[in-house]
Amino acid sequence: MPPAAAATEEQGPVDTASVSPDSGPLRDADSRGSHGVAADAHRGGDPGDHRSADGDGPASDHRAAVSGDGEAPAGDPPHRGAAPALPGTAAVEPPRRVLPAVVTAAVCGVLASAVGADPVLAVWLLLVPGMVAITAVDLAVLRLPDVLTYPMACLAAGGLGLCALLVADAGGSWLRALLGGITLSGSLLVLALINPRGMGLGDVKLSLALGTVLGWYGWGVLVLGVFAGFLLASVYAFHLVALRGAGRGTAFSMGPFLAAGTLVGVVLGGLAG
């Protein structure tokens, strides 16, 4: 056996980092996860340059989960171009991107059926995309950022004020809507001060918009919408305790239930009007 061949067998597989000059660190470990690490390992990156999906250490464990021994499978040539799309990726990501649009369209359809040709429908339709975005953020990170809650309150108050100004019989009261937002926000603030774990300040800020919307149709609709939101939250909390073994300290998003209760109130208010 020639000396060069013997040296190759003793040293093991050739380090692909010396073969691929265009290898580099993982570009986006958070978004690509272990599949992205495995793909870069085939492309010839240095194992020491790759980080794990959470950015705390080497990604050798991710590669082991894919190939079993931390190395690329034998016989696979190093890839210099972009990594091919992994099977199943296209089937998972599009539904997650389409879901908010589907929910938005469905809610707009329900509101249009309930409110009809009332000019206030334009305000409700403008609020729906932002409310869906707020709900998605709260479900994902248990937070309601000010960059979303405050503009929603301003849009609700301004849109209803413009509607009351331009339409003689707008079907609601702008002053009562403003008072409804202040009343609901103040009430939830008291609850947040009494029990910070049960009600967050983000929910208090969100209620400015929700109370304004419900107050447009009347105090009865405001009470009904808030009651529906808390009822839905209570049912979900019971589900967590009874079926998932959650305790009293388990946190969950309250914003989506408040938004759902508001939708119930607006639909009933539109049908009654």
From TrEMBL:
Region (Disordered): 1-89
Domain Prepilin type IV endopeptidase peptidase: 126-237
Signal peptide: none
Transmembrane portions of the chain: 121-141, 148-168, 174-194, 206-239, 251-272
Composition bias, Basic and acidic residues: 40-64
Keyword annotations: Membrane, Transmembrane, Transmembrane helix
Domain of life: Bacteria
Pfam families (UniProt xref): Peptidase_A24 (PF01478)
PANTHER family (UniProt xref): PREPILIN LEADER PEPTIDASE_N-METHYLTRANSFERASE-RELATED, TYPE 4 PREPILIN-LIKE PROTEINS LEADER PEPTIDE-PROCESSING ENZYME
Family: Belongs to the peptidase A24 family.
Identification of the protein by name: Prepilin peptidase
Record lineage: Bacteria, Bacillati, Actinomycetota, Actinomycetes, Kitasatosporales
